[in-house]
Amino acid sequence: MKPESTLLPKLWNVPEAISSRLGREPGPQRAMLEDGHLLIILHQLPEPDQHQRKAALFWRNPEGEWKTNLKGSGLAGLAEHLRSFDDKLAELEQAENKANTATEYHTVLEQIAPVLRSSRGLHRAMQQAREMLKSEREIINLRDQAAAIERNAELLLQDAQFGLNFTVARQAEAQAATARQMAATAHRLNLLAALFLPLTALASVFGMEIHSKLPDTPINFWLICLGGLVMGFVVMAMLKKD
């Protein structure tokens, strides 16, 4: 009795040697050959934060007829499946080219990562199918297309990572420049405060109504101002040394 598998369509007459090796989940992408029947188990194009993979099945019977559980028919459906990866990578490449902020680059990276993982399994499964079915010429072309998909996904991931690192470095550099400018401005304000602090202190002291033997003359006023300024320059010079 053939074990029941929810993965295979019920109308597919797949040998038990293959169906018995399948579970309810697609598992890793791979190819299986038994009694002239070739079954290629792939993953549909993944979405971000999608933990459960959906199976894309392609079955070739000994008569050379192809069937799939996706839209399309036979080997053309397999070619369409690979084309969906190319279209997704082209879409992500446009998004990567338009990205200017770290958030935008991170969004692109979140979408590239699952596509890259899936493309690696896709290439591996197509290589297995090529080795199992050497008489099918079209499998060679599809295997090469899968290899190109994996390579493009890797390059796009690297470009997005470089873009993210450059954006973060540029923002850090801008923040450092702003911090230096603020520190310089604060230092100038401290120098101005140090310059006028003694003069302010003297003005406060002599502005009080106290009995002093110092005559209230213009000369004394300017002498006090001059003394305050001298003390201010001394304090400012001490701050500059620090």
Structural account:
The chain is α+β, with helices and mostly antiparallel strands and 242 residues long. Helix content is 64%, strand content 9%. A hairpin with a 2-residue loop joins strand 1 and strand 2. Helix 2 runs antiparallel to helix 3, helix 2 (74-98) runs parallel beside helix 4 and helix 3 (102-132) packs antiparallel against helix 4 (137-206). The longest helix is centred in the C-terminal third of the chain and has 70 residues, at 137-206. The model has no long low-confidence stretch (mean pLDDT 83).
Topology as a string of helices (H) and strands (E): HEEEEHHHH
Q: How are the strands ordered across the major sheet? A: 1-2-3-4
> Mean of the pLDDT scores?
83
Strand content: 5-15%
What would you call the shape? rod-shaped
Radius of gyration from the alpha-carbon trace, in angstroms: 38 Å
Q: Segments where pLDDT lies below 50 for 5+ residues?
A: none
Name the structural class. Answer: alpha+beta
Give the distance, in angstroms, between the N- and C-terminal Cα atoms: 90 Å
Percent helix range: 55-70%
Total number of helices: 5
- What is the makeup of the main sheet? 4 strands, antiparallel
